[in-house]
Design goal:
single chain; about 270 residues; mainly beta; Immunoglobulin-like; binds copper (II) ion
Amino acid sequence: MSKLFCVLCILILLLSACGAPQSWEEEQVTVMNQPLLSDEVNVNWTLEDDQASTTGEKLIRLEIEKKNGERIDQFEINHEKLLHLIIISRDLSYFNHVHPEYKGNGVFEIRNVFPMGGDYRLIADFKPSNASAMTKTTWLKVEGDQVQPVPVVVDDNFVKVVDGKQVLLSIDKLAAKEEITMKFTITDAVTGEPIIDLEPYLGAIGHVVILSEDGEKYVHVHAEEGQGSGPEASFETTLPRSGIYKIWGQFQRDHQVFTVSYVINVP
Ligand SMILES: [Cu+2]
């Protein structure tokens, strides 16, 4: 009888020991409302043919949810938009930076005309409420005629001309894992006069996107604050490893965004 009593006591002790901390932990989670981490957020990407379109547009849809399948429905404006979407072809020849429309319940949609079939890198930047800004990427396969990929060729001349603007890119040092400064100098391609009437684009003097040649490393670039309206625009960043990268700089003038790109080789 006393043996049975002892066994019962041990069982009760064990059960209470197991049960107590669990309910305490559950309580802590509800009380603290911890910020959401990027690892806990998932994006379902889909691509549909737009039947109504005559230009071959496709509808890109992002459904943003927690790993447990619960939709995230509150987002904060980040660089003037709820979500930034970058679309880049596998060969890096096609680049587009767009802002999908928020449909509610974690769904963003936008139509896009893809110039050819093949694989595309899609990169979404957004900030759910109660979370840090995060980046989610995917590869999407687009049906349609494939064309010969354009080779990625490292530039030896960092002066480019686009829409009547001449843009010089200078980088203080070509090195991985170190802070580098990229400076764009913009002049009129015909007269050579400095361009001093750039307009703010997404709340800054410009916007820069960098992607590694294999499409795997995407780099956020932040414009240095308090810059004027040209002719110079500086950006600081750190490249994660050696290799070939493509850089797209975007600026705005006369309500028009222009994009200039360069290919660099980081030793
Ligand atoms: Cu954007």
